[in-house]
Structures are given as C-alpha cells and as structure tokens.
Amino acid sequence: MKLARTLIFFLSVQICMLANTVNASGLSDLVEAKDWQTISPGIWKIELGDMSNEIRYTDFAAEPPKLEVLNKKSSPIFPFNQNPARYIQNNDGRIMVYIPTDLTETIYGYGLQLDGIDKSRTVLDLKVDHWGKGNGKTHAPVPFYISSKGYGVFFNTARYIKVYTQVGNRKDANNNPTPLDRNPLPEDKIGEWDPQPGAGAVEASLIADGVEVIIIAGDNMLDIVSRYNLLSGGGALPPLWGLGFWNRVHAEHNADQVKADIAEFSKYNIPLDVVGLEPGWQTKSYPNTFEWQTKRFADPEGFTKDLLKQNIYLNLWQNPYISPEAKIYDKMYPLSGSHMVWLGIVPDYMLPEARKIITDQHWNDHISIGISGYKIDEVDGFDNWLWPDHATFPSGTPGEVMRQTYGLQMQKMMYQDIFKKHNTRTLSMVRASNGAAASHPYALYSDSYDQLEYITGISAASLSGLLWVPEIRSADNGREWLMRFQTTAFSHLAQLNAWSSGTKPWEFDDVTDDVRDVLNLRMQLLPYLYTAFADYNQKGIPPLRAMLLEQNFSTKSEVIKGTLDSEDNPYATDEVVNRNDQYMFGPSILVAPFYDKFPEERDVLLPVGNWYDFYSGELVGNGTKITITAKSLDNKIPLYVKESSVIPMLTKAVINTGEAYGHPLELRLYGTNSGTVRIYEDDGKTFDYQKGNYRIREITVSNGEFDEVISKNGSKAMFGKIEKLRIMTK
Amino acid sequence: MKLARTLIFFLSVQICMLANTVNASGLSDLVEAKDWQTISPGIWKIELGDMSNEIRYTDFAAEPPKLEVLNKKSSPIFPFNQNPARYIQNNDGRIMVYIPTDLTETIYGYGLQLDGIDKSRTVLDLKVDHWGKGNGKTHAPVPFYISSKGYGVFFNTARYIKVYTQVGNRKDANNNPTPLDRNPLPEDKIGEWDPQPGAGAVEASLIADGVEVIIIAGDNMLDIVSRYNLLSGGGALPPLWGLGFWNRVHAEHNADQVKADIAEFSKYNIPLDVVGLEPGWQTKSYPNTFEWQTKRFADPEGFTKDLLKQNIYLNLWQNPYISPEAKIYDKMYPLSGSHMVWLGIVPDYMLPEARKIITDQHWNDHISIGISGYKIDEVDGFDNWLWPDHATFPSGTPGEVMRQTYGLQMQKMMYQDIFKKHNTRTLSMVRASNGAAASHPYALYSDSYDQLEYITGISAASLSGLLWVPEIRSADNGREWLMRFQTTAFSHLAQLNAWSSGTKPWEFDDVTDDVRDVLNLRMQLLPYLYTAFADYNQKGIPPLRAMLLEQNFSTKSEVIKGTLDSEDNPYATDEVVNRNDQYMFGPSILVAPFYDKFPEERDVLLPVGNWYDFYSGELVGNGTKITITAKSLDNKIPLYVKESSVIPMLTKAVINTGEAYGHPLELRLYGTNSGTVRIYEDDGKTFDYQKGNYRIREITVSNGEFDEVISKNGSKAMFGKIEKLRIMTK
Predict the structure, then answer these.
(1) DSSP-derived 3-state class of residue B256
(2) What is the pLDDT of residues B466-503, one digit of tens each?
(3) Are A344 and A308 in contact (CB under 8 A)?
(4) Does A123 reach chain B within 8 Å, measured CB to CB?
(5) E strands present in A570-645
(6) Residues of B numbered 60-79 whose beta carbons fall under 8 angstroms of chain A's beta carbons: which are they?
C-alpha cells in the first residue's frame, strides 16, 4: 500500500486542494467496467485490477464448467448496457465494484444466509464463520446474488468481501431519494422518514489486488441459478445411498454398539442407509489422528464390510487439525500454517505434498476398506477457534483466503484425489463451503438449532449451489420431534445427529409411526429425488429450491413500518419480515412444513397454476394463500403438487436404498390433464455416468394410461417396472 | 499489495517448497521489535513498518502530552526485556504485532466495552460502531489494554484493528498447553477439555503500512492509566456547570415550552444546569442545516441569554451530515466525501477549509450567542447508515480511518477552533470517540438501554480516557426510574434524555423525593467531584474509575465451567461472568448501585482497608464481601467511603452550579484516624487555569478539627468557607 494521499492534519498549513477535490466526488470517480468477455451465452466476466495473484472460487470447483450445456442456452442481453457497472481501486489496497440497481429491485442470495434470502438493503460481511445471525458471516457466504430484474452477479474471489446492497448513497448519483427532514416532518409525510434511504447500487468492497466479476443473465430466475451451477461444473450427483436416511451414533459407541443400533432400526422398521461415527472412532479426535481407535473398533475393515453387507454405509467425522500423536504429524508439520487449531496443526492443502499425505492416509485407512465419506467439521469458525487473519501458510496463501476456502480445499482434494480417482461417488458433509461449489457432493450443516432457520436454509442453499442438512438432535416433545423429522425428510440429506444423547427416531412413542411414515415417504420418492439430482448435475437445476425460482411466484419481504420508541427503536427502523418457510422439493412438490412458530396451523402461498394435495389429489388453490391445519392433514407434512405433474415412486417404502434397485414403481398423476415425467437411472455408485452410462425413461400419462420410452440407454436399469398408475385427481 | 506468494493450485506441478516452508513456521517468522524510544519514564514507543502515511490517534488529542508531569514519574523497567514483543509484515498489506503474555495474565480495556472490562481470551474487532454486544465494535473501541502484570499497550493507529488476546496458539510457541483429547477424555480429565486453549500473546492484526506501538509501565494499575491520560494531554476539565444536572427536552419543543420546562424543574426543586435541544431546533435536522428554526426559536440569542441569566446553559444536538438546504452546503460540497449519510453530505474535516466553514458557522450562530456546547450524534455507525469502508474523501483519508476518527475530528475541531480559541470551556457529548481522547471534554453515550451495561460503561470508560453518560429515557416503574437516576447521578455527566416522551424527573410520585435526594447529593458533592476532574486534568487520574484501579482490589471474571449440551452448548464452552457493577466515584467513594438484576439486595466487594457507610459513617467491612438491601438504606444509593477520607461538600444542595460559587462547605471525615483533602478551585469557565489561574486548598482534619492551607493561589476562591466539620465515624 503506497498511500498517495496528502497527509493533512489539523496543524498543517499547506494543502493541495484542487487535485484532491477532483479525486473524491462520488460516482464520477468510478471507472467504467468495460471489457466484458463472454464465457457462454448469457455469462460474461471481467477482471478488475490485477488478478494474477488472486484466487478464485471457480479454481476449487469439482468439475469444469459444463460449457456444452451452457453453449446451447439462449442469449439474453447484457444487463448493464444502459447503466454500466463501475469500479474504483485506490492506493490503500482496496478495490470496490459498483453494480447499479434500481431502488425497486430485489436482491436475493449471498449463500447460506439462514435469516432469509431477500438481501435487499443490507450490509453483509461475506466471511466464512459460524452463522452470524444476519451479519453475512456464515458457513457458506457465497458472493453471488440474483436480482428480481433477471440477472445474477458473482464476485469470483476468495477474499473477505463486504457487500453494501442498496446501502450508501453516493452524493452525485442520479437516483437518490429526496431528503425528508426528520423533525419536524411535513404533516403529509408523518411516518415516512427512512433511517436508511434506498441507494441504487450494490457496492462490493474488498482489499485485494483485483477481483473477477461474473454476470449471469437467463430466461428466468431458475435459469440464472442453473447457469451458475453449470458454470460451477453442474450440480453434484450423490450416490443413491446418500439419499436414504442417515443416523449419527453416540460419540462413545464402539463397533458392537453401532451394530446394536442398526439392529434396533431394523426392529423398529425405520429406514437406514448411512451410519455416521462421531469423534471417538479415532485414537485422538481434538486434535485428530485419523487413525482407528482399536479399543472400540478392533477390526475396522471387517466392521465396515459387515455393515456394507447390510447396505449400511459408514461416514466418519473429522476435523482437519492434526494431533502430535498422528503418524502423519511429522511429515505434515512443515507443510502446516503458523497457528494451530485446538492445538493441532493446520495443513496447507494448497500444497500438493500436503494433499498427498492426507489423501494417501485416508485412502489406505478409510476409503479403501469401504468407508463412504466424511463429515468435515469445524472448518468454518469462530475467530476464537480458527487461525487468525494474519496466520501464514507455507504456500504463501493469506490466512484470509485460507479461511474462505478451507472447506472448498478439503472438498476438492477428496473429490479429486480420493473419490473420483477411485471411481466411487460419495455424499459427505462439510461445515464450510463457498462459491462455485455446486459440483461438490457435500451437504452443509450448522450448530443453529432454530427450526425456521433450518427450513430457510433449504431455500438459501438452492440459490448458491449448496446442499443443506437441517439437523435433528433432540426435541422437547413429540410434536417438535415430528416437525423436525418432516423438514429433514424433505431436505437434501436426511439425518438424525444425536451424537451426544444417542436419542433414536422412536424416542417419542406418540409420533413414532408418523416419523416412520415421513421417512418411508422419502424412500418411496427415491426415483423422483434421484432424477432431481440428475437434473442438478446435467442441467444445473437445483433439486430443492426457493419458491422464488418457481415461475409465477413472487416473494418479497414484508416491511412492517417502524414505530418510534426512544428506548427500543429510536430511529423508527422498519422490521423486515423475510419468511422463507416453504420450498420446492424437486420440480413438482411444494413443501410447507409445520414448525415451532406455526405448529398446528399455517399459511401456504401457492404460485399461479392449479395445485393439488399430495395425499388426496384434491385441488387446493391457484395463486392463492391457503390456511391448513396439522389436524386436517392427520399430522402429515403438507405437500402440494403442481398441475399435470407425474410423480414416480417406489410402490412401497424400502428399508434402505439397496432394496430400491429393481424395485417396482408407481406413478401418480395430479390434475386433470395429461402429464410427463423423466426418470434418470445409472449404477448409483460410480462416475461411469460421466461417460454416458446412464438411462432416461420418458413417461407420458394421458387418458388413464402411461407410455414409457427409453430415450437414452447407456446403463442397465436402476429401478423396476412401472406396476401402478394412480390418477390422483378425480 | 504486491503479493509475492507462489501461486500454487491443485493442478500446478511445480512448487518452491524450501523457501516457502522456511517462511511459515510460526513464532520464528516474527521479527523482534527492538528499537523502542523512550517518550518519558515508563513510556516507550516504536514504529513498526512505515508510519509516514498512517494516522495516529494521538494526532487528535486536544492537548499535547503533559511531559512536565510524566517526566517526574518513576522509571519502571521495560516489561518485554525477557520475552520480546515481535511483529510480522507480509506482502499482503497486513501487519501483526505480537505482545507476549503469560497464560495467567489478565487483560483489561479496549475502550468502551459495555459487557465488561476483562478482555482476556477474546477476539475483538476494534471498530467504531454502535455497541456490538461483545464483538469489539463500540462507540469508542480504544486499542489500549492494561495487563494484570503491570503495563499497558496502546496501538496508536487509526486503522481497523483486530486483537486476538490470548487466542491463537502458534505451533512453535513454547508456552502452549498440552493437547487433551476430547473424546474420550482420560478418566482423570473429565470436563477439562477446553474449546479455546490459552495462548501466550496478544496478536494485533491490521492492514496498514505500519503501526505505532506505545508501552506504558507504572507503579500500579491506576498509575498506568494516569500515564496514558497524561500522554493524551491530561484529562478534560469541564466547566463547573457541566457537572450539574442536564435535561434534554422533547424534540418538538419551542422556546416557550423549554422555558416552561425549566420553570417546572424549579417548582419541583430539581437541580438543573443544562438544557439540551434535540433535533428540531434547526430548520432541517436529518440531514442538518445547523440554522435556527425561527418558527420555534424566534430569537435564539435572546432566548439563550434569558436562560443564562437563570444559570441554565443550552446544549444543541446535531449530527454532522449537511442538508442541501444549509447555507454552507455549496461551499462544503467539494470538501465532502463520496457518500452521503441520510442524504446529507459528509464534510472532510481533515481539510482546514472544511473546518473553517463549520466552525465559523457554529461560532456565529451558536457559541457567540451563548450556546454552551453540542451533542454530536451518529458519528459511530451502523454500517448501513454511515459511509462504506471504500468511501473516498478529498483529503485522501481512507474511509476506514474517517470512520475510526470522525468523532475525534469533530471533538478536536471544536476544541481548537471554537472553545479554546474563544477561551470558553465546554462539556459536550459525542457518540464516537477513540484513542488518546482523555483531554477532550466530551462524554460518550449509547442507544443501549441495559442498566448493567450502563454501569459497566463507567468502569470501561475509566480505563481508556473516556467519559460516559448512562442515559435515562423512561422506566417501567418508580423503582427502575430511581435506580437509573442513582447511577446517572454518580456518573461523569448526569442527564435525563426523554427526547421522545418528554418524561420528567417527577414522573413517578413514589420516588420523586428519592430522585431529588440523589441529584441534590451530586450537587452537594460538587467540590469533591470538581477536584476529581482537576486531578484528571493535572495528574491523569480518572475522576470515576473501575475497582481494578484501586489498590488492594483484584477483579477477575468468574468462569463457570461449560456443560455439554448438544443443542445449546455443543463444545461445553465456559461462561465467563464479567461483573463490573461497582466503581469508585472520585478517590474516596465506592458506588454500588442497585439495578434490574439486583433491585433490592446485592453484594458489594470491598477492597482491603476499612470502608464506611457514606450516610452513617459506620464501619461496614475490610476486604470483605457484604450484602446490602435497598430497604436497609432507605432506598438510597449504596455509597462507601475509604478509611481516613475527608469529603468536601456544599453545606446544602443548590439548584444549579451557579449557586455553588461562594457557597459554604462542610467536611466529612470517615474512619477513626486523621485525614487530608485537597479542593481545587478556578473560575469554572475559561482556560485561564492553564496559565496557573487556579487555587488549591489543602485541608487536614485531626482530633475533631481542621486546618486549611492554600498551597497554590493563582485564582480567586470558587467555593465558600468551611463552615462545618462532621466526624462521621463514632
């Protein structure tokens, strides 16, 4: 930083006024961002400043951009031809990107923001951290937003970035509101003074040599997000087993106790595909050795294989901080950063040597014996746990960049050097991620335990190429337990994580049948859900998604005008209610879970078009707000199906996904018209689908009959024949 | 930023391992901070990196360091001879200062941290903002701490600075704890796993060319703080009227209503010295014109002078953001920053021209007609109100530095170009301040309305050269109202601020007499309090102070061991209880207010030495914890007086400080020994005291008699003769 300012202080006499004044007058200082390069139709990028030493999130994508799909997309016009994007770089090491907006535009996104997806008129610190309750810090603070005007903006940089979204009025902007005096207000303006006047831009601020900006336009909101996901390599396609039910066992369990747990699941007839081992399976866990603790697990390979025979996959918890007692410690020591976490060294995975040490160990000790994946914990925050911003790493990567990308580095390393290398898919978990991560088969999670935040996470994740697990650990009563299970069953990854209490799904007698029912329903929906993930992979379409991404649906925060209160609200600040408590599960099913704020009765906003009750097939509304009660649904989760949808399901629930292979199907048609549906099939386990080894079954239902065509036949069948057609709507 | 790192990514093959490894091994990377310069005995400074373009907080002090006092101080040894302070500056624009600590050392301070003064084992973002409830952001985030080992450290830079206090274990430090595995813990270590292992340093991290570090050692904790204040120019000496009672009137009041309010105070016999006008006295307030609204105040000069005749001083609210309708707008426009606040321009007061425009206007329109000072509001935050970090200013000062210093700039400008220039003292208010501010006659305040935070603020302010107003605006009942008044009456500036409700001190009949009593007591204590401020000015001794600054008193946070709870406390994080709910008011009186958590009964920790009840003179304890009830004190505020103290008071309460001039005194002696006291006197209004125009009355009380000597006689008398001696302890 060579600070060129004239250092003026109160006692100084001389000042170079003319030059300085010219340099600071607002918008006119800014430089137009002119030389946009086209990546594919509707996607443009520009490098502002010097990117030669900067790191991009796209560097960490699992797969390269799916240009073959993107290049077939429509060509929307560049959104900033009239009002150009601009930037300014000063001598103080800071660069700012100015993206114009209208005052009426709504801005959504910025990653896993669990307080709501509408981020208009906010200031956010996009920094990987524990969930910061609205300040922008979160497990995946993706610097990508989409606008109600039909474009997205992605700041493709691994720096801390602070985004002033429609906040901060430049003095020479031409779209500022007119100042209203606050006190006294003119009589006709009482209540109209706004403590935060709208501003017509997103100003993204970072300290870096340069920043890459990517603009994405599309035919609609869903298309913008899909293009973002395709640019990130297409969405992850999990193995089929990943979509079954997961249970993390008590952290102190040994092999026999794990087996006993599994037997109990079987006894209670509760689906189970994945068992997660928590800290304690290894000789040391805080910090970590990654080596099996033989007192508890005497024969890891035999144990793992025994479980696999029952179609049960094992997932291993870890955090990446290495214990002095680990065999790899000495080799890793010189390849680690200046600071420790929980007294374990922090490997620098920007170094190929470091990656080799850990992935060799993981392959040899875990994956080669049948372990299915990991839960990579504690790569997010807090500041008082992780390395400081000034920590140094042997690769020279700044501590800040390591913080923003450590979760991505772990995902990429394991994807590339373990799973893809050995042609075995995983679905795993990670507590921090970031931009361009759609192609990574990892679901995020949090220590938040707020039900609405967990539901909102599904919508938020869908806007930024993320998958999300709303955890269940405990509940105060059966009703809460059931509501949590219902949300979880209709999320990306369905898991119970009672690592501390060991609580089981059948903890509350009064709801055990209901819990089983909703998990069974998820299992029955496997063909539908797996196909939704295939669309994520091939087309970038998120498998679960915010209502915003539906056609004919507009979502906007409700603004409750603030009332002056000298103690509680001295600025009469408005309350913005940003309720994202319903979402789409696949292309056809709208989910509106009950939760603590609305445990017995809630509203559902239906998009325009006919919507039908999933269970009864009855028409429930069209572009309307309906009110439903838990009682009227017999405590089932509220699900609504779009007109002319055909839902492919297993004819019966299965106890695990192993039994889904070859299982007969039924189709359910909703509405009074004909309908079509695709079913995607492959081996469910390997990356062979990338070579075209998959099948597409195209089905048309009309006049009470169905017609099936195999439109792509690169793989043997996955599910069985269609045995049943149910015309749900009378 | 010329980022010299080797850019390595996953697909890259080459890597310069050796050089990089050497560069990142922890403590061994750091450079010893060697060339400390002595400022005065016990004060050393060093410039790390390049300070030529950096701005220091000491640049904004109202007065130069009081070297003549500092040079007479003792010469403690430099605290880092054994274990040196270190730093590292990387090519990424970042500099980090490493100050070693013991793991057992307690660190206090960092400015106005309203959650407690013990800041051991924390990470704080020291940034001017609204109070951030413990993240370091606050109205005055002074980068100055004092250690239980007897030294202080001041990072003298106007940059955002993040301090990792005993957080972050460097891998090659020699004072790290031994790692304990978390799961399973050895049987004899159950409950001992610590999610935040202690670390042996303060690591202060900032993005800047350089940083100046000042180390202050002293004979004891109070001496360290006193030296810091002397380095800052000595503490502010308010005019006598500033120590009376303040009332801010309803924002919509006109001149007649203000006069009616004053008459009511008189009728209820409630002391009143200062009336504050809130937004509305000017033609436009959000943004501001600074010009009188003649509809409400037809004759500002006549009105102000009428009030002065009644010994009532007027204080004017303002924020600094200038309305397009202000007469000075056009001249100020080119001298303002890129962004507006509330649609008003933000003057760049680093420019002498800008300072001249505003101080000329303020002098002509306000101060020259008798206005006593200002309440400078909203110079602190939030991010969504103030200018962004990347805002540019014509002086070239970075937006971040403007944010950290805007409150300081306003204080310095007004001190220098208005008040001192015209030889008239002020006591004013400001909502943001920062380092080296002791010599500024401004008290801080907040929109926090938590009683304990308000009480804690008094202790916190005392460690960093700040004054503090715990506001009163309303209460739910008489008891709360009284408790708030009692704390306020024993704070730096005693004010009621019912700007929105217009609530008066006599709002709750049941406590009106008690409210009057405590305000009267403050008025009676004027000689004692004014002398305490003179000691602040001349010796740097804070007039009110944290118990920590008392000899024979040790305060440490209580640590409540965390209990594992998978939902609420998954890391079994300890709770740190940092209770700072008693403090010293002047050298002799310990104040332990009742507040919402302890409204009827509370503990008081008495330092070693005999302590006496203020009202009865009875011995209450010595180094003990006592429990007191409101009832036993007849609802009076608990006050305890140190052994051998002599308290100089007015014989009776006065309705305003104008009546204190020449008023006879009484002395109260506590304890069974003799005692001495000094009384400081000057004209109470001007800066003539700086030329030696003040008086010191030295009084000794023994054997039931007192002896008075005028040890310094540069001014005429302020208070009257001593008429009464009360031997309080029988």
Answers:
(1) helix
(2) 999 999 999 999 999 999 999 999 999 999 999 988 89
(3) no
(4) yes
(5) 575-577, 583-585, 589-591, 601-605, 610-613, 619-622, 625-629, 639-642
(6) 60
Q: Do B181 and A394 touch (CB under 8 A)?
A: no
pLDDT of the residue at B26: 61
Interface contact A343-B177, CB threshold 8 A: yes
Q: Which of B1, B25, B280 sits opposite A1 (nearest CB)?
A: B1
3-state secondary structure of A393: coil
Which residues of chain B fall short of a pLDDT of 70? Answer: 1-26, 183-184, 554-560, 573-578
A342 reaches B (C-beta below 8 A): yes
| Interval B174-187: pLDDT, tens | 889 888 777 667 77
Is A348 part of the contact surface with chain B (CB cutoff 8 Å)? yes
pLDDT, position A569: 72
Residue found by looking up tokens 């086209």 in the block = A38
| Chain length of chain B | 730
Kindly report the three-state secondary structure assignment for every residue of A418-484. HHCCCCCCCCEEECCCCCCCCCCCEEECCCCCCHHHHHHHHHHHHCCCCEECCCCCCCCCHHHHHHH
Q: Answer whether B6 touches A (CB < 8 Å).
A: yes
Alpha carbon distance A466, A141 (integer Å): 11
Helix H, strand E, coil C: the string for A211-263 is EEEEEEECCCHHHHHHHHHHHCCCCCCCCHHHHCEEEECCCCCCHHHHHHHHH
Provide the residue type at A4 as one letter: A
Give pLDDT tens digits for B117-166.
999 999 999 999 999 999 999 999 999 999 999 999 999 999 999 999 99
Cβ contact A396–B5 (<8 Å): yes
Residue B81 forms contact with A (CB below 8 Å): no
Chain A interface disruption, residue of B55, B183, B416, most A CBs within 10 A: B183
Contacting residues of A for B60, CB less than 8 Å apart: 10
Instruction: Give A109-133 as a DSSP string.
Output: ESS--TT-SB-TTEEEEE-BSS--T
CA atoms within 13 A on the CB side of B48: 29
- A504 in B contact zone (CB under 8 Å): no
Which DSSP string corresponds to B598-653? Answer: BSSEEEEEPPSSEEEETTT--EEEES-EEEEETTTTTTPPPEEEETTBEEEEESS-
Q: Which residues pair with B145 in a beta bridge?
A: B109, B153
Mutate which of A2, A10, A400 to disrupt the B interface (most B C-beta within 10 Å)? A10
Mind giving me the DSSP string for B277-333? E-TTSBS-BTTB--SB-TTT-S-HHHHHHHHHHTT-EEEEEE-SPBPTTSTTHHHHG
**Contact assessment for residue B81 and residue B436, using Cβ atoms and an 8 Å cutoff:** no
B252 CB neighbours in chain A (<8 A) are: 183-184
Contact A21 B197 (CB under 8 A): no
Residue at token pair 């597409």: A696
Number of A/B CB contacts below 8 angstroms equals 343
CA distance A637 to chain B (A): 24
Q: How many CA atoms lie within 13 A of B359 on its CB side?
A: 21
Tokens linked to B327: 């007469």
* Complex ipTM value: 0.92
pLDDT on residue A99: 97
CA B501, distance to chain mean position in Å, is 27
**pLDDT score of A560:** 67
Mean pLDDT of A187-215: 89
Distance from CA of B630 to the nearest CA of A (A): 26
More confident position, B322 or A381: B322
Q: Specify the DSSP element, H or E, that contains A373.
A: strand A373-376
Q: Is B410 part of the contact surface with chain A (CB cutoff 8 Å)?
A: no
The confidence band for A169, taking pLDDT boundaries of 50, 70 and 90, is very high
> A 185-204 residues with CB below 8 A of B?
193, 195-197, 203
Q: What percent of chain A has pLDDT over 90?
A: 85
